[in-house]
Amino acid sequence: MSTVAVPDLTTTQAPFIEEAHHDGRLFIHQPYDQYSERNHAAWRALYARMLPRWERYANPAFQKGIASLCLDPERVPRLEDVNRFLCPLTGFQAKPVSGYVPAFLFFDCLRNREFPTTITIRDSASLDYLPEPDIFHDIAGHVPMHTDPAFAETLVRFGECAHIAADLADSISDLDRRTAVMTSIVRAMARFFWFTVEFGLMGPPHGLRVYGSGLLSSYGEIRHCIESSAVQRHPLQLEWIVNQAFEIDHYQPLLFVADSFDHLYDSVRQLERWVKEGKLNNVAPGEPSVNSRDLESFMAASTQPRVRR
What we know:
Layout lengths: L14 H9 L13 H21 L2 H10 L9 H12 L2 E5 L5 H9 L2 E5 L16 H8 L6 H22 L4 H24 L2 E2 L6 E2 L2 H4 L4 H7 L4 E4 L2 H4 L12 E5 L2 H17 L14 H11 L7
Parallel strand pairs: 1-2, 3-6, 5-6
Antiparallel strand pairs: 3-4
């Protein structure tokens, strides 16, 4: 006798998400009652094994953020509860999405203090690695950092940088030239985001610690990035980062160390100046490739009126 699968919110296996895709809905609600016991078990296992690694390797702002959010170690969080603790601290809120958010729209959400948040969770058989984000990566990896005012302002500024890039695109009349320039700028911004927000390290005064969310949600890599002699760790340098290719399917061999969140914010302001000055118009080729949806999102934004800040 065959068994009927119980609908839940497991990554790549969630009927709710498939329906949202079919209907063209990117921004959605979190249907909390659809989380199954296997979903909660996956969250519980992920949280339990990461907790001692956060205590050892995560930067103090993250550790304070985890405490501020009052996440339940046993159950997948309700985003409304997360936002109830998060929003009063920095104005940020988690915004549930059905899947991939094109680059300009993602950065625009950051500018508006909204963080696009995946609501599905990986299967228990895939605890070590998942190529796409899930709610554990987004809520336990990213959102605790959003409780820190300095880091939150950095994200908002990064979102503003995307608007400046779109303005630049609007000023280039030749389509081929505009496409080439925007491809380069989007690649540079993706590299910066990867080597800071996702895979950033921070130095003294607390010793070498992790603030990048890709590391904070990875059981193996959070220790590897700090302790392994195979990892090159260099001071954060914008000219290097924007020209440095990366691949997502293995531990990162090269990481960059910021001095502080003020240093990180200043680097975003420098990135913004470089967009205006044309210094990102021809960065080194290589990964990541810029997909058509990301490029089109910037191209479309360049023709739309936007609110100035």
